[in-house]
Amino acid sequence: MTIALSTTLHSSFADAVERTRESLAGEGFGVLTEIDMKATLKAKLDEDMEDYLILGACNPALAHQAVSVDRQIGLLLPCNVVVRRDPDSDGLVHVEAMNPQLLVQVTGEPALKAVAHEAAVKLQAALDRLTDS
């Protein structure tokens, strides 16, 4: 099992972020949190890095199903989606979503299989929409 579902876009970083938000919304995910790693590392450590944004994406219906099975699953939510500029190739942006199947693997809770599968299908559809547009 891979840690991430991913795709690569030929686009500007800003366009990739906007398209990712729209694509996630099309699958019922809202973005609850946003961490700008580039800005944070610059501000806290005076370190430079490429554009790198972590979006905390949540599909409320799926989150409800998951916490109904295991209340501690909130420790692994929301699903992180990373949008990052390729440091070695100008014009390439990687979009990577946490593979929800990890929820089952980490918890060992078989009752999470169905919700993890549905979340994976929806996240993969969001990534596929990015490459189709």
UniProtKB/TrEMBL annotation:
Q: Which Pfam families match?
A: DUF302
Q: Which InterPro entries match?
A: DUF302, TT1751-like_sf, UCP021774
Kindly give the CDD domains that the UniProt entry links to this protein. DUF302
Q: Where is the DUF302 domain?
A: 35-100
Point out the coiled-coil segments of this chain.
Answer: none
The UniProt transmembrane annotation reads none
Q: Which PANTHER family match?
A: SLR5037 PROTEIN
Q: What is the protein named?
A: ABC transporter
Q: Which organism is it from?
A: Mycobacterium dioxanotrophicus
